[in-house]
Amino acid sequence: MGETIRQGGSGKWACKREFDMTELGALRTIALKGRVSALDVASSLGLDPADVAEQVQRLAANGLVKEMPTGLKVTPEGKDRLAALLAAERATIDMTAIKAIYEDFLPINSASKEIFTAWQLRPDGEMNDHTDADYDAAVLANLTAVHEQVLPLVTRAATVVPRAARYADRLSDAQRRYASGDTAYVTRPIIDSYHTVWFELHEDLICWCGLTRAEEAAAGNAH
Fold first, then answer.
1. Could you give the CA distance from residue 215 to residue 147 in angstroms, rounded to a whole number?
2. Cβ proximity of 132 and 184 under 8 Å
């Protein structure tokens, strides 16, 4: 693990030299999901549950995460630590390359927003009760077409930010699940549904580009 220091007086964390990818991944996953178990963190990261449980214990011992009845939560001190880790990660990124990737992502993201909306609402604005199999099949076909578009982009992102590679696996897993009939994996929160993973990918792309969600929401680019 890279050495870390506390900045005097501010209580903020700062990274010095290299950073711990498992620590970053765990903290980022917990922060994005809000409330999550260590087992689910391991699943999202594609890591051994025992290794992640050990990492989570370290984070808790350092006051960076807290075990709540509903799952793990990042503490205010943990948010400071995560911000430092993300800044250290951004310092390693080719910004020209990642911004070009993000520009290519935005049109695909716009298409995904329409598809997720269509899954939840019929064209007339009524809730989709999923009794029209043909309608649902058409929406899922469109989502699969978007999936095929975004995978090469995620592969490109992984050459710039190694942590991006896991998104290809997670998106593909969600796609396989809904294609096999488990349509909870289209938009259901909490689980790693396609929408959940897409949201987290988008959040990381925004972060890697040095942008904020507020800026992207104002630009009409956020879900």
1. 25
2. no
Give the C-alpha separation, 203 to 93, whole Å. 16
Assigned token pair, 105: 């992502």
Name residue, tokens 């992640």: 52
Residues forming a β-bridge with 66? 73
In order of 51, 82, 154, 155, 217, the CA distances from 151 in angstroms are 28, 27, 5, 6, 24
Q: What mean pLDDT do residues 81-92 have?
A: 94
- The domains of the chain are located at 4-90, 95-218
Separation of first and last alpha carbons in the chain = 35
pTM across the whole model:
0.88
DSSP assignment of 69-86: TTEEEE-HHHHHHHHHHH
133-184 per-position pLDDT tens digit: 999 999 999 999 999 999 999 999 999 999 999 999 999 999 999 999 999 9
3 state DSSP class of 68: strand
Q: Which class is 4-90 in CATH? A: mainly alpha
Is the Cβ–Cβ distance between 90 and 207 less than 8 Å? yes
pLDDT at 223: 63
Compute and round to an integer the Cα radius of gyration of the chain.
18
Where is 149: in which H helix or E strand? Answer: helix 133-160
Q: Please state, as a whole number, how many other Cβ atoms lie within 10 Å of the Cβ of residue 16.
A: 11
Q: Which residues contact 176 (CB under 8 A, 6 or more apart)?
A: none
Residues contacting 102, CB < 8 A, separation 6+: 205, 206, 208, 209
